[in-house]
Predict the structure of GNAT family N-acetyltransferase.
Amino acid sequence: MLTLKGEHIYLRALEPEDLDFIYTIENDEQVWEMSSTQTPYSRFLIKQYLENAHKDIYEVKQLRLVICSIDHAVLGLIDLFDFNPTHNRAGVGILIAEKENRGKGYGKEALQLMIDYGATHLRLHQLYANISEDNLSSVKLFESQGFTKIGVKKEWNLVNNIYKDEFLYQLVYVH
């Protein structure tokens, strides 16, 4: 049976206690480029979001899980988005919040758990990821987990008055 627990981390559902963590993440301008966000979020809106986070992925078409270390420290977030049960696909995004926790394998382990979850529980046929051309650590992470670059969206995102390409990565499950 699949578990959302790995060797060094586990994935869990959002809790009301995550308000401050989510507020910090969603209002970090350095993260906005990855999430295509342009404006800050209020605590009120994030509180409402958390109150609805229990809704089923089949209803809201997304799933956000918290990445925690085995000693329960909150490390980051992993999301499934644009879930499409008709075509058995979803997008996936991941963020390890603090720079000092990056490069330690937490993201790799979380992504593998989500890949397994997608196959086993959601019966996905494929996952995809959108990665900025200059996000080399994400390119390395997704390629290490079997994702293949299948396209380049030229000058896709405007960041600090510079257009950046975005890579489209895909993992097609072998059943």
Summary: The CA atoms of residues 118 and 124 lie 5 Å apart. The chain has a mean pLDDT of 91. The domain at 9-125 is CATH 3.40.630.30 (Aminopeptidase). Helices lie at 19-26, 29-35, 43-51, 57-60, 106-120, 136-144.
